[in-house]
Amino acid sequence: MNELKQTCKDVLTEKKARLIIGYSEDKNKRVKPFIARTPEDAEKFVFNHHAVNNLAVYISRFKNNFEGKIGIVVKGCDLKAVTALIQESQVKRDDLYIIGVNCSGVVREIDKEFSKDNSQIKCKYCQTKTPAYFDAIAEESKEFELTVDDQQELMTKIEKMSAEEKLDFWNEQFEKCIKCYACRQVCPMCYCEQCIAEKSEPQWIDSSATARGSFAWNTIRAFHMAGRCIGCHECERACPMDIPLTLLTRKMGMVASSEFGYRHGMSIDEPTLIGSYSTSDKEDFIK
Amino acid sequence: MKIGVFVCHCGENIGRTVDCPAVSKACASFPGVVYSEDYKYMCSDPGQNLIKQAIREKGLDAVVVGSCSPHMHERTFRKACESAGINPYMVEIANLREHCSWIHNDIPQATKKAIDLMRFAVERVKFNTPLQTIKVPVTKRTLVIGGGISGIQAALDVANAGFEVVLVEKEPSIGGHMSQLSETFPTLDCSQCILTPRMVEVYQHPKIKLLSYSEVENVEGFIGNFKVTIRRKAKSVKEDLCTGCGLCAEKCPIKKKAFSEFDEGLSNRPAIYVPFPQAVPNVPVIDRSVCTYFKTGKCEMCKKVCGREAIDFTQQDTFVTEEIGSIIVATGYKLYSIDKKPETSIYKGYGEYGYGKYKDVINGLQFERIASASGPTSGEMLRPSDKKEPKKIVFIQCVGSRDESKGISYCSKICCMYTAKHAMLYKHKVHDGEAYVFYMDIRAGGKNYDEFVRRAIEEDHVNYIRGRVSKIIEEDGKLIVKGEDTIAGLQVTIEADLVVLATAMVAQPEASKLAQTLGVSYDKYGYFQEVHPKLRPVETATGGIFLAGACHSPRDIPDCVAMASAAAAKSLVLFGADMLEREPIIAKVDESTCNGCMYCQKVCAYNAIEKKEIRDRKGKLIKVVAYVNTGLCQGCGTCNATCPSKSVELTGFKDDQIFAQINAFAEV
Amino acid sequence: MEDKFEPKIVAFVCNWCTYTGADLAGTSRLKQEANARLIRVPCTGRIDPVFVIKAFESGADGVLISGCHPGDCHYNAGNFHARRRWTMFKNLLEFVGIDSTRLQFSWVSASEGKKWVSVVDGVIDSVRAKGPFTQYKKMNKEIEIPVQTGEGVPAK
Amino acid sequence: MEELIISTENFKKIVQELLGKEFRVIGIPEGENKYQEITDGSKLSLHPEAAPTSSSFKEYFFPKSEPIFFYKQNHSSVDLFDPIEDKKGIVVIGAKPCDASALPIISKVFNWDYKDDLFNKRYDSSLIIGMSCNYKDDYCFCVSTHGSPENTKGSDVFLTSLENNYFSAAAITPKGESFINDYVKYFEMDEKKHKVIERKEEIPEHFNYEKVKTWLDNNFENKFWDTAGEMCLGCAQCAFVCPTCHCFDIVDEQCSSCEGRRAKNWDACQFSLFTKHASGHNPRDNQEKRYRQRISHKFKYYNDKFGEILCTGCGRCARGCPVSLDILQVVEDINALAEKS
Question: pTM of whole model > 0.95?
Answer without folding.
Answer: no
